[in-house]
Amino acid sequence: MAPKHQLDRLAIGLMVLFCSIWGVQQVAIKLANAGISPVWQAGLRSLGAAVLVFAWAWWRGVGLFSRDGTLWPGVLAGLLFAGEFGLLYWALEFTTASRGVIFLYTAPFMVALGAVWLLPQEHMRRAQWVGMALAFIGVLVLFGENLLRPSGMAWLGDLMIFAAAILWAATTLTVKATVLGRTAPEKTLLYQLVVSAAVLPGVAVLLGEPGVFAPTPVVWASLAFQTVVVAGASYLGWFWLIRHYPATRLSSFSFLTPVLGVVAGGVLLGEPLTLAVFVALGLVGLGIWLANRPAAR
Questions:
Q1: Beta strands in the chain, from DSSP E residues, in sequence order
Q2: Which InterPro entries does this UniProt record tie to the protein (predicted)?
Q3: Alpha helices in 71-184 (DSSP H)
Q4: Residue from 116, 113, 134 nearest 291 by CA
């Protein structure tokens, strides 16, 4: 499929689906944390997903080992991916998830800023900046009060998650701006899964994590969901979208993820759904609409 300059119904539908999956992932991580330490969990997820994506690519006849100039960009993307998740999971030892969300979702702005230099064909209009800002305000409405209640070493965790956001944006830009953006999404994803599966267990050992310490059916089911649905299917779809659609427009949809994660927590875990949740959802939706509205002629 030829690259497109606007998001069509397929891209919008897939992004809403993926953001819903990534929101539910927050619940799955909480459930799996009861029996598997966080960085070990991320490493096991990458390892399992790498096996599945490799099998899928082999079945479809995707050429994974051809010399196509993707090796070093792929290794870079893999290291950025591993660093992002290593920092993200470790940071939650110091700060709260709700504070972390605010810093993590600065990433779409970094993608937009990086695109100014690396992706000049994806020029951001004023309405797009306003839309992204409005969506971010929606996230602040949901979680912003926690910014006013830091404790202990929260600043360190916040800084680590901000660094994870930079790595997340850098991964997206690396894929879009290099030959990875023109290769099969299976190969692009495998670079990241294989490198992170090799790196993250070592990070977990350095952090002194216990690994799998209390396995239960719920813990394994939560890990399986993260492996098959999140790191396998949804990430594969995400990199297919990055290959064919503007990264800046796709990134604006990521603001849906934390709000839908709170909704999923309310539905699946019985956590409270306050008025702020629905106000935030409305602001995020309006911001995404502004950011993706076609330019007036």
A1: none
A2: AA-Vitamin_Transporters, EamA_dom, EmrE-like
A3: 71-91, 97-104, 107-118, 126-143, 154-177
A4: 134
Q: Is 29 helix (H, G, I), strand (E, B) or coil?
A: helix
Q: What residues does each domain of the chain span?
A: 9-292
Rounded Cα distance, 184 and 39, in Å? 28
CA dist 192 → 14, 43, 63, 289 (Å): 21, 11, 17, 31
Q: Average pLDDT of the chain?
A: 86
Of 204, 242, 94, 68, residue with least CA distance to 157: 94
Closest by alpha carbon to 163, among 254, 88, 225, 112? 88
CA–CA dist 225, 221 (Å, integer) = 6
15: pLDDT strictly greater than 60: yes
Nearest to 109 by CA among 138, 143, 133, 125: 133
Structure tokens belonging to residue 18? 């993926």
pTM: 0.84
Residues contacting 234, CB < 8 A, separation 6+: 17, 18, 21, 22
Q: What are phi and psi of 36, to 5 degrees?
A: -135, 130
CA–CA distance, 136 with 147 (Å, rounded to integer) = 14
pLDDT of residue 296: 54
Q: What angle do the packed helices 126-143 and 256-269 form, to 10 degrees?
A: 30
Band of pLDDT at residue 56, cut at 50, 70 and 90: very high
Q: Please, are residues 54 and 236 in contact by the beta-carbon 8 Å criterion?
A: no
Per the CB < 8 A criterion, the answer to whether 266 and 187 are in contact is no
Neighbours of 296 (CB within 10 A): 6
Using alpha carbons, select from 108, 145, 102 the residue that is nearest to residue 287.
Answer: 108
The contacts of residue 289 (CB under 8 Å, 6+ apart) are: 131
